Amino acid sequence: MRRRREYISMAEISLKALVDKTNNRVIFVESNEEFVDVLFSFLAMPVGTIVRLTRNQQPAVRVGCMNNLYQSVENLETIHLRTEECKTMLLYPRNGADKYCKKLKLKIDDSNRQEYFYCENRDRCKLLSYYRTAICKCGGVMEYSASLGENTSKALDDRDRGVFVKGPNRLMVSDELRVIPPSTKASITLFSKLGIIDTSSIEEKTFNMDVNEALNLLSRSLISKQPLTEVLLGQNPVSELSKEDFEQVSFTKHRLETASNQDGTIYVKLMISKSKNRVCCAEAGEDFVDLLFSFLTVPLGFIAKEKQDDTSKGSINHLYDSIQGLDAGQYLKTKETTEMLVSPKLAPGFGYEGQPLDIKEYIQQPYYRYWDGYFGHRLRTSDNPGASSINDCEVFTVKDPKSHLKDSASSRGFVNGQAMFTITDDLLITPLSAIAALSVVRKLNVPFGDIEERLVCVGKEEALRLLWIAYCTSESALTNAFLLEEQAKEVEIS
Fold first, then answer.
1. Would you tell me how many other CB atoms lie within 10 Å of the CB of residue 14?
2. Spatial contact of 330 and 166, defined as CB atoms under 8 Å apart
3. How confident is the model at residue 112 (pLDDT cuts 50, 70, 90)?
4. Rounded to an integer, what distance in angstroms lies between the CA atom of residue 26 and that of residue 10?
5. Most exposed residue of 17, 85, 255, 462, measured as fewest CB within 10 angstroms of its CB?
6. Contact 285, 423 (CB under 8 A)
């Protein structure tokens, strides 16, 4: 399933930076909308895409337990998934804002190229798929490719540049990725915050950032408060959130007060070491594993939205807050593109009924097939007028890639309904096996008599907490989500 990553783009973005020579750190950079567009695009990226792009960076970066979830999908046989396409969906999740992100000057995500396929009975079935291996409702393989017509709308001039940010505009970006309108006052505020008194220690430098450095900046922004310093000046970074960093975070009060879903929607059986007060492993069915796997499809901005405070070690929360702090009329492109950053949704087809995170999904737009005298049959969308009117086109709908044959309207998840799984504390998932579960217990050096079985219910509150924990910490996700939270509640009650 792994695709080779090859960068052929030679595009670069120029950054002017003020550097504190004494402490060898970036104070801030100044650039146009192209750089800030790249930064803001981080928020639209699905977690699975971020894991795939960053896990082979040097030094390697771990996105909490998400790397283990990604590895679990890689190693899982497709017989345990509803369709073969489910595996591709989780390893290469689509970006709900891809039609905008493909306009970025530096395209970090190498999976944005969209392909379309239909079966040999396309004139009768009128179904499309994003996956060549999909099975149509007629039983045929959807292996015939279709091309999307180019946007024929009028070219925009330089006064209407930008993807998420209006151009032409110049903005300041602090070392911790706070995006600020440029002003002398803002500069002085940053100097004061960093304790810089002697301006002779300040040096102006120019950097040219290419796509690989932008990817490195994404990696550093997940775990560092100084990502610009680490990328531009080459300082030695940390590789993941530490346990201490995680223990400082908790959900904001309005989230903790949200009523948990106690109607038994999802139950998980925990195997707990009583003496160590930690989860050894868990046993669960499709509903809980669907939830865990769906974390890979969630946009990073959704996590930032649900966890709005300044306690996390990375800089993504500063990026998220910056959008809401900017004058929308002066700096932000449109209401639609801004909403894609501050309230991102799943790409069409990635949601499913009963998803506890309660994350919304973009509506799947129909495609229209028309005849191009030069290329033959082509596709277009309603926002790309093309060469002919919609009335002259055939309407094609996109098949749910999680569904089988005639079950084209299915809204179920990714996992086969008959499957049961073992989940380790750090979220490695394997098909249920008594031998594998006992092996986990032995590795933890826990006596069998010390094991206690406990059943927990997972609703919206628990799902959101587990999402945040899985993003933050690379170990003990289940323990932190279910046992430590119980202790905290007991302390509050007493």
1. 14
2. yes
3. low
4. 25
5. 255
6. no
